[in-house]
Amino acid sequence: MPPKESPLEGAKTITHAPEAHLGMAGLIAAYFGVALTNIFASRFLAVGPEWFSQAATPEDVVRRVVLPGAFAGTLALAIVLRLGWRRGCGFVVPPLRPGLLVGLLPVCLLVVAGVGIAFRAFPSAQAGFVPTLLLGQFMVGFNEETASRGILLYGLERLRSRRFALILSSVLFGVTHLAGLAFGWSLGESLNRVLLATILGLMLGVVRLRTGSIWFPIAIHGLWNFIVLGALTIPKSELGSLAALPVLAIFSVLLFAGLLRLSEHTRARRPELVGTRGARPDLSPTGHFVSRAVAGSRPPRPDCPAGLGGSRS
After folding, report:
1. Is the dihedral of CA 232, 235, 238, 243 positive or negative?
2. Are 73 and 143 in contact (CB under 8 A)?
3. Pair 196, 87: CB distance under 8 Å
């Protein structure tokens, strides 16, 4: 039985069990390889729970955050390019479509929260500290998203299904946060980080799949980390409404993704409820009507004569 076609770049989904299992093991090994590279590089540079309070200068941030993130990100990007998965992993300009809102809205919310956090958390920071810290968190976002929502998500989707890929990649993303144990975090703190990271991974996976681009997850991840680090230095009583914005970002992703899913389901079941502009924008309204009315017939070409239902209105 030949392998069935996958909607991802015309790639073929592996359906034979031995090849699928080997492929999945290789993907997971590559993912944890990138994650461990980042962990060991950070550990080598003496990053621990207290690193943020000690990193008082831009040079500290570069050494403790930017360099490990850049090293692991380079490794992840090399894997993507070696496999020829640049487009499949989402390294493309986001296409203009309704799903773009799933990425735009949380980014806007997190930018607002990040600006507020920066002014409250770092009022007397050295010049260049905040931009360097933000750059460092984007480097972390780049390497983790390239590995998680790039290599792992895309590869698992080729092997199994989109839902399976989304769930497993999110769980494995959460498991990597047990690495906090190596940096002095308690077991309870590490388990809390695993749970939060798994939920965040699901959100980022939805954003990646709905927007078709990995740049939105990278931006959201970097902004999220920056906000969390800044919030650690601010008393809870002073956070105010800023604390609600990251939560709203998560709910906005789930809400818009759910609405888009409902819209697609409605369009598939009852196309007449969504007007004449359906899934074939190359057809005129008359052409859509004829193609739906004549079951089993081929939709008319848009350049057909008017009497055949192909004229443009």
Report:
1. positive
2. yes
3. no
